[in-house]
Specification:
InterPro entries: CID_dom (IPR006569), ENTH_VHS (IPR008942), RPRD1A/B_C (IPR032337). The protein is mainly α. Helices cover about 80% and strands about 0% of the residues. Helix 3 packs antiparallel against helix 4 and helix 5 packs across helix 6.
Length: about 290
């Protein structure tokens, strides 16, 4: 087995490929040197992960970590435990890349660790959170952006409906003031002279643009009311989704609080079980040299 240096570690990681032979060869070399060089190994591995953006290379590095961790489970559990400190920053970087293939591979490996009890349940949850948090954050941001857009559009439509055409009493009164003959062709038979016809024509020409403009305003109002109804439905759906998401978040936080409380109780119980050192030293004088020999 060849010697170890940080430079050699970097070179081997650069040459790593996502093949069984390449991963296992480097894994054995790392395990061989981990007793004396654990910190350098982990720091170099994390640095290499953070420098990478290519999915295949990142997956190879994660598969390498998986092989090292699982092979250290019985032979070097301390290094397996220490590797956990490198996983969280590495997985957080992978999540930032937002590559579906990488995330899927990492989550699959985490699920294997969970099944084989490689790490504690709370540690597994933290690793999952590193990968899922970015996706969750992106989803929340997208939902918030959509919610803001719906709200802005809804407010705009409602403001337009504050002064609707249907409530314009002045125009309605003006239209109502025109003689019925302007709108009802039945009254045409009552015309007797050309002057009456000319007078009616003038009234029609006067009323026509007023009525047409008002009808156009009513048409736009109807469209706004339909838009408001649709936006209200979207708004309520967005509120429902937000409520469900908040419920899930509260449930998740409550579970975490429960685990923390339990760990706190376990630590307190362990502390209480420790012997009182003051009593041990005050129980009596130390034996003399003669009494010892």
């Amino acid at each position: 087995m060849s010697g170890f240096s940080e430079e050699m570690m970097r070179e081997r990681l650069k040459k790593l490929t996502n093949t069984l032979h390449s991963i296992q060869t480097l894994s054995l070399w790392i395990i061989h040197h981990q007793k004396k060089h654990a910190d350098v190994i982990l720091e170099t591995w994390v640095k290499e992960v953070k420098e990478q953006t290519h999915p295949e290379k990142i997956i190879a590095l994660v598969n390498l970590a998986n092989d090292v961790i699982q092979n250290c489970r019985k032979k070097s559990p301390a290094f397996m435990k220490k590797f956990l400190t490198a996983l969280e920053p590495a997985f957080s970087h992978i999540a930032e890349l937002d590559d579906q293939k990488c995330n899927k591979s990492v989550l699959r490996i985490i699920s294997v660790w969970k099944e084989r009890c490689i790490y504690r349940p709370d540690e597994i949850d933290n690793l999952n959170q590193c990968i899922c948090k970015k996706g969750a954050d992106s989803k929340i941001k997208a939902e918030f952006k959509l919610f803001s857009k719906i709200t802005t559009n809804l407010v705009g439509v409602l403001r337009k409906l504050e002064d609707p055409a249907s409530a314009d009493a002045k125009v309605r009164q003006l239209i109502a003031s025109y003689p019925e003959a302007v709108a009802n062709p039945v009254h045409l038979k009552n015309l007797r002279t050309g002057e009456q016809a000319q007078e009616l024509m003038e009234r029609i020409e006067e009323a026509s643009p007023v009525v047409n403009a008002y009808c156009e305003r009513l048409k736009l109002e109807l469209q706004d009311r339909r838009s408001a109804q649709r936006l209200l439905d979207d708004y309520l759906n967005a509120l429902d989704e937000s409520t469900e998401r908040n419920k899930r978040l509260i449930h998740s936080v409550q579970k975490r609080i429960g685990r923390i409380d339990q760990e706190k109780k376990d630590i307190e119980k362990h502390i209480e079980s420790l012997p009182d050192l003051s009593e041990l030293f005050s129980a009596g004088p130390l034996p003399s040299v003669g009494e010892l020999f």
